Each structure stands twice: as C-alpha cells, then as structure tokens.
Amino acid sequence: MTIAVNPTLTAGTKKVTRVGFLLLDNFTMIALASAVEPLRMANQLSGSELYSWHMVTETGAQVSASDGLSFTPDFSFQNVIDLDIVIVAGGVDITRSFTPKQVSWLQLMGRRRNAIMGGICTGGYVLAHAGLLDGYDCSAHWECMAALQERYPKARCNSRLFSVDRNRMTSSGGNAPLDMFLHMVAKQHGPKLSSAVSDMFICDRIRSEFDQQRVPLRQLHNGGESKPKLVEVIELMENNLEEPIGLDELAHFVSVSRRQLERMFLKYLSCSPSRYYLRLRLDRARQLLKQSSMSIVEISGACGFISTPHFSRCYRKHIGISPRDERKIAWAADGTQNAIREPLQDDSLISLARSASALSSAKVEPSFGSIAV
Fold it and tell me: What is the CA radius of gyration of the chain?
C-alpha cells in the first residue's frame, strides 16, 4: 500500500504539496491539529515549504468544531485552489453532519487525475457515502465503524489506526492522524525528516498502519501483568456479534475450560462471559440506532438477537430505555440547522501565505533547517 501513485508526491520531490481539509460541522479539533501540525513541522525542520494546508467549507462560511470553537475557512467550493490531497475532517454525529453538495464536491475531486482523497476521525464515513472507498481498505473512529460497515459493505473497513491504500488515506480519531501524516512525510521526504518531526512532538514512536485503535481492555495490562487468554476471548466476541459464539466454543478456542473462562471474567471484569458478550452486542446496537437508518428489526439481527422482542427487552433492561425511544432521542435534533453565516470574500492570498508565514516565523527556532531533504 502506498500513496505514491501521484507523481508529485514521490520521495525526494521539493514541490509544495497542497493539502485541503474539508471541515464538516462538529469536526474534532484534535484530529485536525494532529494532521496539520506534522506538515508545519516538516516545513520548519527542512527549512523549506514542503507543504501548504488549506481549510475548505461548502460556502466559505465559518464552521464550528465539536468543542464549540468557530473556525474561519480559506475557501469555498467556488474559489478553492488546486489541491494535491483532499482530506475530510469529520467528528461528532457524522451521519447527519454532511450535505449532498459536499458529497458531490468530493466525488468531483475524486475524479481528478492522480487524485488523493482521505478522511480523519469519522471523515471516512462521508468518503464511503460518496462511493470513494469502494474496494479500498479504510479506517475511521471506532465509534462510527458499526454504521460504516453496515451501510457501506464495499468499503473494507478495519479497526487499525490508519489505512493507506493506493490513492486513499484514512485515519481514526484523536491523535491517529499524526501517525498517518508522519507516514506520508516519510514516504515523500524520507524517514529522517519524519522521525525528527516525531521527536519535536515528544512521540515515543511512530505507530504503523497495522497498530489497532483499541487495545482490548487496557486495564488488564496494569502493572505489566497481561491476560492474553482473556484478551483473545474478548477479541473473538467483538468479531462475532452477529452470530455469537457459545461459551464452550469460546473456551475451546483459547484452550481453557468453561469454568476457567467464567472465573477469569469474574475476577478481572466482575461479570460473567455471557453478560459481557451481551453488553458488547447492545453497545453495537446503540451505535446503529443512533448512527444508521437500519430498522430495529435489522439491527436486532445484526447484533445477534433471536427476535426483535427479545432485543427490545434486553435493551430496556440493560440500557434503561427502549430501542424505539433511543432512536427518537437521537434523531430529535435532525431538523436543527446551524446559523447562517456570510461566506468569506475571495481572498486566496491569505491561505497561500499561511504556510509561508509559519515557515518565516520558525526561522528563529534552533531546529529550523536542521534536516536536509
């Protein structure tokens, strides 16, 4: 897997790579910062403008991040400059945070020759909706994976931190975009620069695209004591929610007795294996109720329940609300619209000057130009 399909992005090139970020409503600031900062630092350490970064919204109006901070973009769809890479910055409530015009624009961008498209946090969901991840490996924040997998089965969704598959690059949320963009810097300008950028951000290591988003039950590794059998069972449960595996079979898979398995769960998780498995299935059901348009009958089957009434009883007992009411609450704000803001003036010089200005300001830093590329 490589992103070097674009001739302007091959290793050793000094051409400025223009990266555009489509900011969706309620995008997550940490994911955006984790994507932009390695580009800025690569410029600083190389002492040259290797990258520029540009924020785009549909109309050029301000957009709010999930933390409530407003962000002023550089371009609208009407005046956006040519971009080498387009990244969808997603965030909260992704299934209802994008518009048909945004999807159409992404499809247009995806048809360009040598187009590189990507998403950070939940942005991969929108790319999948646009049909731009059909047949591609992709990563997205674990909280929206269930909805993505169920609605867009042609996208090969995985639980990795990030995925780079030909001309697609997608990452999960939090600081995972940092690792994906460090990977890109290494591919384009060498591992020495990428490692130096990592050092500047106090990263103990650059994680690979094969690292997983969620290390199962981190609390089971406290004090250096690991419980590999228990972790393996939980991974089996997580990967078999639609057709649950019986406890005897789970025990057999990890070469323990059923009684040993029950003791492990009771000791470390304070519940039975059956109760834990049920909670995993209900958590997935809750994600689908909130993030998909699947019917309750379909969700019941997708989460391994023998019937819809059985699903409803379990959901109400353990979640405290019926599936139907859960969905009503989740979709209650569907008609809420963001305040209309005036689009920005066509002033592309501001955006084009940002990376150059940041580079100029960095000249006073001891690290400026310290890595030859």
Answer: 23
